[in-house]
Structures are given as structure tokens and as C-alpha cells.
Amino acid sequence: MNSTDIFRIALGLSSPWYVERVEFLDSTSEKGKELHLHLNFERGYKFSDSSGLSTTAYDTVDRVWQHLNFFQHRCYLHARVPRIKSGDGTIHQVQVPWARANSGFTLLFEAYAMLLIESEMPVSKVSECVKATAPRIWRVFNYWIKRALSKDKLDTVTQIGMDETSRKKGHNYVTIFADLDQRRVIHVCEGKDANTVEDFTKALESKGGSKEKIEIVSMDMSPAFISGVKENLPDAQLVFDKFHLVQSLNKTLDEVRIAERKGNDLLKGHKYTVLKKYDNLSSQNKSELDYVLMMYPKLGEAYRLRELFMDVFTIADPQEAKGYLWFWCDMAMDQKIEPYKKFVSMIKSHWSGITAYFDKRVTNGVLEGINSKIQLAKRRARGYRDVHNYINMIYFLSAKLKFDYPLYSL
């Protein structure tokens, strides 16, 4: 067995393809060597066109693909790719078995790059590792995401959660839709307005789903999201996410703290002492909090209302929980604390969606976990300039897609 046979076996080549010659040359771009494998096909071999008709090569086109490194050396495959004439007279290039159409990399090279990204390596670092430019790696990445998405099915989706996240700090938002049952992202689109829901329903139905099957939509109280759901998913039950509700309540409590802070140095540096859960505070912070709440009765009452509000989520019976929430609203209004009056008004104006939580017990907890993964990837990559790259990275991280690149061979 000679070296060409060894490389033929290593590449998994079969008739009509074979390794014609092997060259180990000095690199023209950097120090070191490069391995160049020249492939050819058997003379007179008949290739099949799309209709199944067999014909010999009309002519050939010289192509080069970057392959996985041979030890520390870059490796390239060279081949004369045949073109054949179909029965209708059109000329087509034959698809080679080691690379996909219109790619400058072999399938194994692309699978290795995807494996590195899956291992949480930023694309910029992957490009350095495999000695290819970042835009080329992004094109490979986006191809396989698009391919996997085209095969994704959404026919079983009945409960969704939706939330927005930013591509850059404070702006350039995308909206994420997740299947709450399968705990995965099923759609991502630019913006955070009502049109995102329409975009989702179109994608849903293009993949075998039905908007009539959507029973529950869990989300925050964004007017744009509410409008979009009512317009495009009229049969779905809106459930306002309890985590966003608690977040809004904490902002309300902080407004009271800020108002009390003016001219009172004793409250300086105690923002998170007030906002954190009491059980999560250290012994020293608990003592400081108790003293602060005693010295500032209005803040103390606001804090007490926050703690009483949290009890509503521990009540198992839906009707009892709704009754307790109404009682809490009346109690908060009686205290005449302006930020709390606004908070109560917000609850009553969204009563149906807020209290639906007690019946359905559905939250956006899945999306909160997904968003944590997205933010970590965003920090590692130091942001995403291209929104489509960002969207596809979200799919890659959280959509549980099935890829068919030859990972088993690596």
C-alpha cells in the first residue's frame, strides 16, 4: 500500500474518485509546510444527472478545498470536477462527495469548525484556529443553521413564551419565541413590536404548525406584544410572566427608596440591601435593613407591601390567590404611596393576563435561562455587528436543531 492509497482510505474515497498524487510543499503564506492532495476520477466514468440519465463528462473545472490540518500543516484538496450535459441540454457540475456545492471547505473541515463553535468558542477564535477568515466561517455557520431550520417541524407547538433581548447594549432588539413544552427556541426575528408576532405565525405555519393550536402565550406586559398577540393569535390565552411582574414591583419599591434617599445620607449605599430577598442578606445587612426600615416608615411600609405581595405565589388554589391579590391591591391603595398606586393601577388594567398565571402556572422561566446563555455568548464574542449572525447563534445555542454534517467522522 502506497501513500496515495492511505490518503484515499483516510478521505473515504470510492469509485470513480482516487488520489492521483500527493505534494508536501513550502507554504506561500506562512512558515511551515502544506499538504496538497490531487484527486481525479476514472476516465470514461458515467455520472448521473438529476433525471437519472448517465453520461460522461462534458468538460472539467479545477477546484480547491481547504481540509482539516495534517498535523500542524494546512491541507488542501485539488480536483478536476466534471461537468455533464443533461438530457435537456443544460450543463451541470457534478457534486463531489467530500464537499457541498459552492463551498471552499471540505465537509469535515466545516464539521470541525461547527464543533468548535458548539464548544463555546467565539467565531473570531475559530477563524484563528482553523486559519480561515471570520466571514468565511460565518458563511459556513449560517449555511448549516439555515439547513437545519428548513427541516425543523413545529406541528406540536401549543404553548409559547416570548421576550426581547438586545444585540448591543440598550438597543438593536430581537424577539425570541420559545416552545415552553420542549424548552427550546423556535423563532427569532428583528424588532420588538407587534409585527414580530405576525412574523412568528408565518414561520409557524410554514413549518407545519397552526396558530389555532396555540393555547397559551406567556410574555411581559409590552403593549406592542399584547397588540400583536390579539391580532395574530386571538384564540390564545395571554399569561403575563410573573418574573416581569416581580421585576416591576421591585422597580416600584426602588422609586420609593429613591424618593426617601433625597437629603438622607443614611440610605446611601443601601439599594440592594432593600431590593434583595431578606433571606439572601448577610447577618450584618439584615441588621442594617431592619434599622433603615425603622428610621424611614414610608420605605418600611413599601418594603412590607413587597413582602406581602410575594406570598400570592405560594397560594395553590387559583381562586384564593386571585382573592388575595385583590385584597393586596386594596391594602396598597390605602397606604397612599404614589408609586404603589401606579403599580396597582397596572395590575388592574392587566388583571386577566396576570391572574391567568394562577390557573395555568406558566412562566417565562425557560426564556430566562435561554437569555442567560445568549448573554454569555454575546460577552464572549464582544457583541454581534451582523444581526443575522446573532439570530443564527441564538438558534444554534437554544433551538435544539439537528445537524447532518459528518460529525461522526471527526
From TrEMBL:
InterPro entries: Transpos_ISL3, Transposase_DDE, Transposase_HTH. It comes from the Bacteria. Residues 94-144 form the Transposase IS204/IS1001/IS1096/IS1165 helix-turn-helix domain. Residues 160-394 form the Transposase IS204/IS1001/IS1096/IS1165 DDE domain. Pfam families: DDE_Tnp_ISL3, HTH_Tnp_ISL3. PANTHER family: TRANSPOSASE FOR INSERTION SEQUENCE ELEMENT IS1557. This is Transposase for insertion sequence element IS1001. It comes from Petrimonas mucosa. The gene is tnpA.
